[in-house]
Automatic annotation (TrEMBL):
The organism's taxonomic lineage, starting at the top: Eukaryota, Metazoa, Chordata, Craniata, Vertebrata
UniProt protein name: Galactose-3-O-sulfotransferase 4
Keywords annotated in UniProt: Glycoprotein, Golgi apparatus, Membrane, Signal-anchor, Transferase, Transmembrane, Transmembrane helix
GO CC annotation terms, alphabetical: Golgi membrane
GO biological process: glycolipid biosynthetic process
Transmembrane segments: none
Length: 368
């Protein structure tokens, strides 16, 4: 059983990697990540699991591989949660449809809330390929171009898993993805999200997002260095015409408004952070990633292992009918490097299976 958990305030010097003087900041260890679909969210989960393991933090874990998605989150779906006063966890990051009151029952009051968005045009293209066998609207559409031309021909509102075909981000954040677009109601929803979430990352500017996240959480550089997870290997994004892109924006009008709003606030954050400083820190982040990739990953010889995903429901990160990239480690790693590299490539469901279910349970092994 989880015991009541409180995290002491810890001021640590944040080592700036761009030549600026270190500053004192508060290390944040209570984090809720609303995992959205096809937005590099599996990559974010890897860094959260690694950080939690490193600091011996507790995770609110689902009884399966998601919190009863696509239903609204309910605290009863958390493994081992008894609803007792003071029973909280440090981290929460598995798939859910957001339900703030229920999340607040599980997470401490000082939790840092984050999520991630992606441009709706590229998101729609990726989702069509990934969820082709799961979303009825996609399944019945011969091609992505056919779907774009006449989505209502294939789309039936409120049919299970059809939320994957329209305003998917709006749905995951807990709102009605089939609602007619209204500027006033969209502004109200965005204001509510801004009040709840401390930072919204953008998958389209992933490295800049990692720099800002690191700064907000007072984490180290290696805490936010990641390899790509759950990326497809057998298809390139389609080149769409301007007219097709506009059609997708209209079809996903709620997501498009959401993205535009948080794209604006994202670049305001970059402006405050400093563009020159951002460019330097992104370059250092990318250099460190390349260094770790060269250390960890097999590049020559046999190709990386791949796996087929056949869409048996939204249970794990892989749910569509596409070939997904699987990293392969170099074979000549030292014991400590192999431990580090194994954590870097460990996938969401593998971490979920291995994470201890309670505070004080044995960890996976000594963290290197």
């Amino acid at each position: 059983m989880m015991s009541p958990h409180s995290t002491p305030t810890l001021l640590v010097p944040l080592k700036l990697v761009s030549g600026h003087s270190p500053r004192l900041c508060t290390l944040k260890t209570n984090v809720m990540f609303l995992k959205t679909h096809k937005t590099a969210s599996c990559t974010i989960m890897n860094l959260l699991y690694r950080f939690g393991e490193k600091h011996n933090l507790t995770f609110a874990l689902p009884k399966g591989y998601h919190f009863d998605y696509p239903n609204f989150f309910n605290s009863r779906s958390v493994k081992g949660f008894l609803g007792q006063s003071g029973q909280h966890y440090n981290m929460m990051c598995s798939h859910m449809r957001f339900n703030q009151p229920e999340v607040q029952r599980v997470m401490p009051a000082d939790t840092f809330y984050i999520s991630i968005l992606r441009h709706p045009v590229s998101l729609a293209e990726s989702s069509f390929n990934f969820f082709k066998s799961l979303a009825p609207a996609f399944k019945h559409s011969p091609t992505f171009e056919d779907f774009i031309a006449n989505p209502w021909k294939y789309y039936i509102p409120y049919l299970r898993f059809n939320h994957l075909a329209r305003n998917m981000l709006w749905f995951d954040l807990g709102f009605d993805h089939n609602a007619e677009f209204s500027l006033q109601s969209a502004q109200s929803v965005v204001a509510e999200i801004q009040q709840t979430f401390h930072f919204i990352l953008l998958a389209d500017y992933f490295d800049q997002s990692m720099v800002l996240l690191r700064d907000a959480l007072c984490w180290s550089l290696d805490d936010v260095v990641t390899f790509r997870h759950n990326a497809r290997t057998n298809a390139k994004p389609k080149c769409l015409s301007p007219a097709q892109e506009e059609q997708l924006k209209k079809w996903n009008a709620l997501d498009w408004y959401l993205y535009q709003s948080f794209n604006k606030t994202f670049w305001e954050k970059v402006e405050r952070f400093g563009k020159r400083r951002m460019d330097k820190e992104v370059a250092i982040l990318q250099a460190r990633r390349e260094e770790l990739q060269n250390l960890c990953l097999l590049k020559e010889g046999k190709p990386p292992k791949v796996k087929q995903s056949l869409g048996q429901g939204v249970q794990r990160c892989q749910t569509g009918y596409v070939t997904m990239m699987k990293h392969t480690l170099n074979s000549n790693l030292s014991i400590s490097d192999k431990e580090l590299c194994s954590r870097m490539i460990r996938e969401e469901y593998e971490y979920t299976d291995l994470m201890p279910p309670c505070q004080g349970c044995p960890q996976l092994g000594p963290y290197q």
